[in-house]
């Protein structure tokens, strides 16, 4: 065996011993709140379909019925990058729709949130710049910061005094400082103080990039995210969102000023060198984006059941983080998280364990991702099942 394969085998054996070995799950048909998973029909509490749109069969059938009637607009493939022949007119329509919704000059649509985050930061920064990232930002943001030529440092999670000390001590050493954060953090379910971040970026002349992947659709009157909910959209230089979660589609987007858009079109490698999204996906994203604007009742229900479940865990002495529709119960040891997830599955509930390196060591957890199509009766008995 080649040395590289021997090293792989040893590393995988170590992951198995640590209860960190992962396998691709076998998933099947979605039926509303339930998912076929490993041959079983389970209550799905591990989906990012926060508004339940992805399980809305009637909406999907209505959309595809329209596609059949207008086939010239809804091809299944683009077969080219956007800068060649893949920039279908539905791209332009969707980007105008996004810019108008957010009240910004321009927007760009990308193939995924990972593409967006690994492409934007390297494009907008140079060796003369510094990127300051929240310590618990998503892996895509961390990777984008590492790919960039800029210096890359992380401030303590939600510790804005620490961030300010870095801004104050570093601002004279760099051409530009870029602050980057999630709005709703994917592993802890807590929320960044975007108002404070806007204040800091203005005080120190920094640039602010915010990833609303888990906030878009779930916060704000029109579902535009935490920035809309607290009224700071205009204070964020680049606001990133995704179609792949609450909007139940594929791809991502960012809203910004026209100057920044033009610069990204000319410099952002994942945009330049990636085959464009299929028109059928672009049309669906536009349809869902408009549909979700009126889903205030669903957003309110999502907040209510999330609060009730979190309180149910806390009242039983369990350690639970956050203040959103992502409800992680931190159990510590990997084997305990795996065991509790298996016990939930035996009760017909799919809530998967999250272990390092996705979370810090000794903070393995079972993470519940809630959706607006769930009733409280679906969730009421779960806290009792998590007691060690």
TrEMBL record:
Ranges annotated as spanning the membrane: none
Keyword Acyltransferase: yes
Keywords: Acyltransferase, Pyridoxal phosphate, Transferase
Keyword Acyltransferase: yes
Domain Aminotransferase class I/classII large: 42-374
GO annotation (BP), single: biotin biosynthetic process
Cofactor: pyridoxal 5'-phosphate
EC numbers: 2.3.1.47
InterPro entries, sorted: Aminotransferase_I/II_large (IPR004839), AON_synthase_class-II (IPR050087), PyrdxlP-dep_Trfase (IPR015424), PyrdxlP-dep_Trfase_major (IPR015421), PyrdxlP-dep_Trfase_small (IPR015422)
SUPFAM superfamilies: PLP-dependent transferases
GO molecular-function terms, A-Z: 8-amino-7-oxononanoate synthase activity; pyridoxal phosphate binding
UniProt-listed CDD domains: KBL_like
Protein name: 8-amino-7-oxononanoate synthase
Species this protein is from: Prosthecochloris aestuarii (strain DSM 271 / SK 413)
């Amino acid at each position: 065996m080649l040395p590289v394969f021997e090293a792989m085998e040893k590393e995988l054996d170590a992951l198995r011993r640590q209860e960190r070995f992962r396998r691709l799950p076998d998933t099947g048909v979605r039926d509303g709140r339930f998912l076929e998973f490993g041959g079983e029909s389970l209550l799905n509490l591990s989906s990012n379909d926060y508004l339940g749109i992805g399980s809305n069969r009637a909406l999907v059938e209505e959309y595809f019925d329209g596609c059949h009637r207008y086939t010239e607009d809804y091809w299944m493939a683009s077969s080219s990058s956007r800068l060649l022949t893949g920039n279908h007119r539905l791209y332009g329509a969707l980007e105008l729709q996004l810019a108008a919704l957010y009240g910004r000059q321009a927007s760009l649509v990308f193939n995924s949130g990972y593409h967006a985050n690994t492409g934007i930061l390297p494009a907008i920064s140079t060796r003369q710049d510094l990127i300051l990232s929240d310590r618990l930002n998503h892996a895509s943001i961390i990777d984008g910061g590492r790919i960039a030529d800029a210096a890359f440092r992380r401030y303590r999670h939600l510790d804005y005094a620490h961030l300010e000390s870095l801004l104050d001590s570093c601002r004279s050493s760099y051409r530009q400082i870029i602050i980057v954060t999630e709005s709703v953090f994917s592993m802890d379910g807590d929320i960044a103080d975007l108002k404070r971040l806007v204040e800091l970026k203005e005080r120190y002349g920094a640039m602010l990039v915010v990833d609303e992947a888990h906030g878009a659709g779930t916060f704000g009157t029109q579902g535009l995210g935490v920035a809309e909910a607290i009224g700071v959209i205009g204070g964020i230089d680049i606001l990133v969102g995704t179609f792949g979660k609450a909007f139940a589609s594929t791809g991502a987007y960012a809203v910004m000023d026209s100057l920044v858009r033009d610069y990204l079109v000319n410099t952002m490698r994942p945009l330049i060198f990636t085959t464009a999204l299929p028109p059928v996906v672009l049309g669906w994203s536009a349809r869902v984006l408009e549909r979700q604007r009126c889903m205030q009742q669903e957003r309110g229900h999502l907040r209510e059941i999330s609060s009730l479940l979190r309180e149910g865990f806390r009242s039983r002495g369990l350690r639970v983080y956050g203040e959103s529709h992502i409800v992680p119960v931190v159990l510590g040891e990997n084997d305990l998280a795996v065991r509790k997830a298996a016990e939930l599955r035996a009760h017909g509930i799919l809530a998967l364990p999250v272990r390092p390196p996705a979370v810090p060591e000794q903070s393995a957890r079972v993470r519940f991702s809630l959706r607006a199509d769930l009733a409280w009766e679906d969730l009421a008995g779960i806290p009792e099942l998590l007691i060690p």
